[in-house]
Amino acid sequence: MFVTQPFSVDSYLMQLQSVIIDKQHFLFLKQFGLQQNVQQDENIPESLIIYLRVPKLDPREPPLVYPRIPFVGHLLGMIQDPHQYFFKLNKRTNHPVATLPILNGKVYVINSPQLVQAAFRNQSLSLAPLVNEYVGRMHELSPSARRSYAEDGMHERMMQLFITRMSGESLKRMNTVAMREMNSIFQGSSASRGQEKRVIETENLWLWLRNIMTVVTTTALLGQKNPWKKDPSLIEAYWSWESGDISRRTPLAAIKDRASHQGQIAIRKALNIYFAEEHHSNDVSQLTVDTVAMQKQYSFSTSDLAAAYLQVIHASLMNAVPTAFWVMAHIYSRQELLASLREETFNAVKQQSLENGERQVSIEVDQLDKLCPKLMSVFREAHRLASIATLHRRVVDDTFLSEGNGPNVRSYLLKKGITVMIPTIVGLREPRLWGGVVAAEFDPERFLGQSKKQQGNSSYTELRGTESISNLRKKAYFPFGGGKELCPGRNFAIAEVMGMMVVLLNGFDITSADGGTLPLPKPGKPKLTTGTARPDQNADLRARIMRRPGWENVVWETVAGPKVTP
Ligand code: HEM
């Protein structure tokens, strides 16, 4: 599972910064599909070949958008501010889809919501070739395991497994395990309950949440014996690894990005030990059990299982944790919103006194979207503002995309072999779609359909044909991707974040370090491969987390599905 960014665009861009195009770089371009038609001639410096080529364009292809600085302008733009670059480019050109020349090659960037949805439906646009190329560079996998992706369609099989195992009863079991783990962290052990320190002072609220969610999520996937529970140093190991350029697999990258490399080694070692043992407890997710069984059929060794599973861990944490952070931060930084959500979520839980004097509070986690519509709207709005994913597909056969039907609707030819980029930010922040200047602002009621601030702009609807603004919004809202690559973990992530928020809102106050309203941090500068914004690490992230009076002796119980014993 190689969520969203299957190849090393970052390292590719980094290399360009030096403007020295060496052999290694030539290979990067090759991976990116940017140097087709270039014959590698040993006698001519590759840099020359690349600079002198301009992409050929069929008139039916999307319009060419030249960068302001020839050849490298688009790349430099992406290096400086990768996500804003697509946003600004769309604002400048208004093309539904554009061809961006980069050195001697090109990529397509899709901007219009209708074309994005057409791209999701189009069978000639696929993520699989990019995944297979990425796996080809995963030297930690044995050659036969790598071949199973390239030759036996392992990516498609894995996606199928995810879709079935992260829905229905197996999803309910995962939700139960996740919430039980979360509850035990928040409520403390029965022996210590009520006597626990009421105030947690943290230097960094992001790290506090990140650490809790890493343990909760890995436990939902791997059960109580999960390595992250046994050895909390693996939490830092994972986040160090993911903060590096994770798709670089060269010895040089290992030296340059030592912490990231060491993190990856530590996790693979721990997962190796985990997979070497047989785990029969029923709190291991069906997803994990079936993934391992399938990969063993393809003769994956324990070390292959560990290397491949790290990608599953990555998929489950990289977006869910920052999304949860923004939901929490938006709520606790607004007193009025906090009060109204407390009321909504209080009405969504059931309470019962226990014989020992404690109070049991139960949450029906898979009903929360219906029981707490305002919290759900906040989740979607926080997600709208935090999502900065750029989705990728490869054109596997020449194909046409069009914004709709009818004689005046233009179709665009997409040529085989070219990489397609679909930035979520363009549709999610489009001012003409989400209410002008308020498009960039947080509106907790935006997805309740009652917000007065949401005037669409008719110039935008005209630009996009005859579709209504509300239809266009639906098409532009795809923070979980779409088509056959639509995130299969989305329902788990939503239940996890919503369940956690119900516990926090009822049971805890979160304030600034001096007890005032929590400040909302600004997002930090993301890497090109980041799918969900993180808070700026220079922001003041200190916070106090306190049990609310009257909620000290609460036992949280989650009703999510069948009972799951560890
Ligand atoms: C708020 C949380 C999450 C967000 C925003 C998110 C977002 C995404 C996006 C944008 C994609 C790419 C879709 C596309 O290319 O069309 C994706 C794929 C995927 N996601 Fe999620 N995701 C989240 C949580 C999760 C969780 C919790 C899991 C697993 C437990 C998960 C597993 C996956 C997998 C397996 C893929 C497919 C990767 C591949 O095709 O190689 N995601 N997700």
From TrEMBL:
UniProt KW Ion transport keyword: no
Keyword terms: Heme, Iron, Metal-binding
Binding site for heme: 487
Taxonomic superkingdom: Eukaryota
One function term, GO molecular function aspect: iron ion binding
Keyword Metal-binding: yes
Region (Disordered): 516-538
Cofactor requirements of the protein: heme
Record-linked Pfam families: p450 (PF00067)
Classification via InterPro entries: CYP450_monoxygenase_sec-met, Cyt_P450, Cyt_P450_E_grp-IV, Cyt_P450_sf
Sequence intervals crossing the membrane: none
Coiled-coil intervals, chain numbering: none
Family: Belongs to the cytochrome P450 family.
Protein name: Cytochrome P450
